[in-house]
Sequence to fold (195 residues):
Amino acid sequence: MITKNQSILKRTFDLVLSLLLLPVLILPIGVFVLMATIDTKQWGLFSQERVGQFGRIFRIYKIRTLKNEIHHLGHLERSATRIGKFLRNTKLDELPQLFNVILGQMSFVGPRPDISGFADVLQGEDRIILKVKPGITGPATLKYKHEELILGQQHDPETYNRTIIWPDKVKINKKYVQTWSFSLDLKHILKSIVN
Fold:
Protein backbone atom coordinates (compact mmCIF):
# COMPACT_ATOMS: atom_id res chain seq x y z
CA MET A 1 0.00 0.00 0.00
CA ILE A 2 1.32 3.45 -0.95
CA THR A 3 2.69 5.29 2.11
CA LYS A 4 2.66 9.03 2.88
CA ASN A 5 6.38 9.33 2.01
CA GLN A 6 5.81 7.50 -1.26
CA SER A 7 2.94 9.88 -2.07
CA ILE A 8 5.28 12.85 -1.45
CA LEU A 9 7.92 11.27 -3.73
CA LYS A 10 5.31 10.64 -6.42
CA ARG A 11 4.00 14.23 -6.23
CA THR A 12 7.52 15.72 -6.29
CA PHE A 13 8.38 13.68 -9.38
CA ASP A 14 5.11 14.73 -11.08
CA LEU A 15 5.72 18.41 -10.36
CA VAL A 16 9.38 18.42 -11.45
CA LEU A 17 8.68 16.48 -14.67
CA SER A 18 5.62 18.57 -15.60
CA LEU A 19 7.50 21.85 -15.05
CA LEU A 20 10.38 20.53 -17.20
CA LEU A 21 7.95 19.48 -19.95
CA LEU A 22 5.84 22.67 -19.87
CA PRO A 23 8.27 24.91 -21.86
CA VAL A 24 8.65 22.13 -24.47
CA LEU A 25 4.95 21.31 -24.79
CA ILE A 26 3.26 24.72 -24.38
CA LEU A 27 3.70 25.62 -28.08
CA PRO A 28 2.46 22.24 -29.47
CA ILE A 29 -0.54 22.42 -27.09
CA GLY A 30 -1.33 25.94 -28.35
CA VAL A 31 -1.02 24.81 -31.98
CA PHE A 32 -3.28 21.76 -31.42
CA VAL A 33 -5.91 23.91 -29.63
CA LEU A 34 -5.88 26.35 -32.58
CA MET A 35 -6.12 23.49 -35.12
CA ALA A 36 -8.98 21.90 -33.16
CA THR A 37 -10.80 25.26 -32.93
CA ILE A 38 -10.66 25.65 -36.73
CA ASP A 39 -11.41 21.96 -37.35
CA THR A 40 -14.40 21.56 -35.01
CA LYS A 41 -15.64 25.18 -35.22
CA GLN A 42 -15.71 25.21 -31.40
CA TRP A 43 -13.14 26.24 -28.77
CA GLY A 44 -10.36 23.65 -29.21
CA LEU A 45 -9.77 23.03 -25.52
CA PHE A 46 -12.31 20.59 -24.11
CA SER A 47 -12.97 20.09 -20.40
CA GLN A 48 -15.16 17.57 -18.60
CA GLU A 49 -15.90 16.65 -14.99
CA ARG A 50 -14.13 13.49 -13.80
CA VAL A 51 -13.78 11.64 -10.51
CA GLY A 52 -10.39 12.22 -8.88
CA GLN A 53 -8.51 11.24 -5.73
CA PHE A 54 -10.78 10.51 -2.71
CA GLY A 55 -13.77 10.75 -5.09
CA ARG A 56 -13.36 14.51 -5.55
CA ILE A 57 -14.68 15.92 -8.82
CA PHE A 58 -12.27 17.91 -11.01
CA ARG A 59 -12.19 19.19 -14.60
CA ILE A 60 -9.96 17.27 -16.99
CA TYR A 61 -8.50 19.06 -20.03
CA LYS A 62 -8.15 17.64 -23.53
CA ILE A 63 -7.81 18.86 -27.10
CA ARG A 64 -11.29 18.82 -28.67
CA THR A 65 -11.52 15.99 -31.22
CA LEU A 66 -15.27 15.74 -31.84
CA LYS A 67 -17.45 18.10 -33.84
CA ASN A 68 -21.20 18.50 -33.70
CA GLU A 69 -23.01 17.43 -36.85
CA ILE A 70 -26.70 17.41 -37.70
CA HIS A 71 -27.71 13.90 -38.78
CA HIS A 72 -30.00 13.55 -41.82
CA LEU A 73 -32.84 12.68 -39.42
CA GLY A 74 -32.29 15.94 -37.58
CA HIS A 75 -30.42 14.43 -34.61
CA LEU A 76 -27.31 16.14 -33.27
CA GLU A 77 -24.33 13.76 -33.44
CA ARG A 78 -20.72 14.13 -32.41
CA SER A 79 -18.08 12.56 -34.61
CA ALA A 80 -14.28 12.67 -34.64
CA THR A 81 -12.74 14.81 -37.38
CA ARG A 82 -9.73 13.55 -39.39
CA ILE A 83 -7.39 15.65 -37.25
CA GLY A 84 -9.36 14.51 -34.18
CA LYS A 85 -8.87 10.84 -35.05
CA PHE A 86 -5.13 11.42 -35.45
CA LEU A 87 -4.93 13.24 -32.08
CA ARG A 88 -6.94 10.47 -30.35
CA ASN A 89 -4.93 7.61 -31.91
CA THR A 90 -1.61 9.21 -30.95
CA LYS A 91 -2.98 10.32 -27.54
CA LEU A 92 -1.82 13.88 -28.32
CA ASP A 93 -5.31 15.08 -27.34
CA GLU A 94 -4.28 14.31 -23.74
CA LEU A 95 -1.36 16.80 -23.65
CA PRO A 96 -3.35 19.52 -21.81
CA GLN A 97 -3.59 17.11 -18.84
CA LEU A 98 -0.10 18.39 -18.05
CA PHE A 99 -1.96 21.32 -16.41
CA ASN A 100 -4.04 18.84 -14.36
CA VAL A 101 -0.74 17.35 -13.11
CA ILE A 102 0.69 20.79 -12.23
CA LEU A 103 -2.55 21.65 -10.38
CA GLY A 104 -2.17 18.43 -8.35
CA GLN A 105 -5.40 16.88 -9.67
CA MET A 106 -3.63 14.15 -11.64
CA SER A 107 -0.39 12.20 -11.73
CA PHE A 108 1.61 10.96 -14.72
CA VAL A 109 0.82 7.39 -13.67
CA GLY A 110 -2.37 6.10 -12.08
CA PRO A 111 -5.87 4.82 -12.86
CA ARG A 112 -7.58 6.77 -15.67
CA PRO A 113 -10.10 9.29 -14.29
CA ASP A 114 -13.65 8.24 -15.14
CA ILE A 115 -16.91 10.08 -15.37
CA SER A 116 -19.26 9.69 -12.39
CA GLY A 117 -20.84 6.26 -11.99
CA PHE A 118 -17.65 4.18 -11.99
CA ALA A 119 -14.81 4.81 -9.49
CA ASP A 120 -17.04 6.89 -7.18
CA VAL A 121 -19.44 3.97 -6.66
CA LEU A 122 -16.77 1.36 -5.88
CA GLN A 123 -17.39 -0.66 -2.72
CA GLY A 124 -15.20 -2.15 0.02
CA GLU A 125 -11.56 -2.91 -0.77
CA ASP A 126 -12.00 -1.68 -4.36
CA ARG A 127 -12.13 1.90 -3.03
CA ILE A 128 -8.35 1.67 -2.48
CA ILE A 129 -8.11 2.95 -6.09
CA LEU A 130 -9.37 6.36 -4.93
CA LYS A 131 -6.37 6.74 -2.58
CA VAL A 132 -4.13 7.73 -5.50
CA LYS A 133 -4.46 10.51 -8.04
CA PRO A 134 -5.78 9.48 -11.45
CA GLY A 135 -3.08 9.24 -14.12
CA ILE A 136 -2.41 10.19 -17.72
CA THR A 137 -1.13 6.65 -18.19
CA GLY A 138 -1.06 3.48 -16.11
CA PRO A 139 -1.20 -0.32 -16.31
CA ALA A 140 -4.92 -0.47 -17.18
CA THR A 141 -4.54 2.35 -19.73
CA LEU A 142 -1.70 0.48 -21.42
CA LYS A 143 -3.66 -2.80 -21.51
CA TYR A 144 -6.73 -1.09 -22.98
CA LYS A 145 -5.03 1.42 -25.24
CA HIS A 146 -7.29 0.22 -28.09
CA GLU A 147 -10.43 0.33 -25.92
CA GLU A 148 -12.48 2.30 -28.46
CA LEU A 149 -11.69 -0.32 -31.11
CA ILE A 150 -12.63 -3.20 -28.74
CA LEU A 151 -15.92 -1.52 -27.78
CA GLY A 152 -16.68 -0.73 -31.42
CA GLN A 153 -16.65 -4.47 -32.18
CA GLN A 154 -19.23 -5.29 -29.50
CA HIS A 155 -22.97 -5.70 -30.04
CA ASP A 156 -23.65 -3.83 -26.76
CA PRO A 157 -20.55 -1.69 -26.00
CA GLU A 158 -21.90 -0.18 -22.78
CA THR A 159 -22.74 -3.55 -21.18
CA TYR A 160 -19.40 -5.00 -22.35
CA ASN A 161 -17.56 -2.06 -20.79
CA ARG A 162 -19.40 -2.35 -17.45
CA THR A 163 -19.27 -6.16 -17.16
CA ILE A 164 -15.91 -7.07 -18.77
CA ILE A 165 -13.51 -4.12 -19.18
CA TRP A 166 -14.35 -2.09 -16.06
CA PRO A 167 -14.03 -5.01 -13.55
CA ASP A 168 -10.68 -5.94 -15.14
CA LYS A 169 -9.48 -2.32 -14.85
CA VAL A 170 -10.49 -2.31 -11.16
CA LYS A 171 -8.42 -5.48 -10.59
CA ILE A 172 -5.38 -4.01 -12.42
CA ASN A 173 -5.63 -0.63 -10.63
CA LYS A 174 -6.02 -2.27 -7.20
CA LYS A 175 -2.80 -4.21 -7.80
CA TYR A 176 -1.09 -0.99 -8.94
CA VAL A 177 -1.98 0.81 -5.67
CA GLN A 178 -1.13 -2.23 -3.49
CA THR A 179 2.29 -2.83 -5.10
CA TRP A 180 3.27 0.77 -5.93
CA SER A 181 6.92 1.61 -6.42
CA PHE A 182 8.72 4.54 -8.03
CA SER A 183 10.47 2.20 -10.50
CA LEU A 184 7.06 0.81 -11.52
CA ASP A 185 5.85 4.33 -12.38
CA LEU A 186 8.98 4.91 -14.48
CA LYS A 187 8.37 1.59 -16.26
CA HIS A 188 4.79 2.60 -17.14
CA ILE A 189 5.95 6.01 -18.45
CA LEU A 190 8.62 4.36 -20.64
CA LYS A 191 6.10 1.78 -21.92
CA SER A 192 3.69 4.60 -22.82
CA ILE A 193 6.39 6.43 -24.81
CA VAL A 194 7.55 3.27 -26.63
CA ASN A 195 3.96 2.17 -27.37
In short: The helical segments are 4-40, 82-89, 97-102, 139-143, 147-152, 157-178, 182-194.
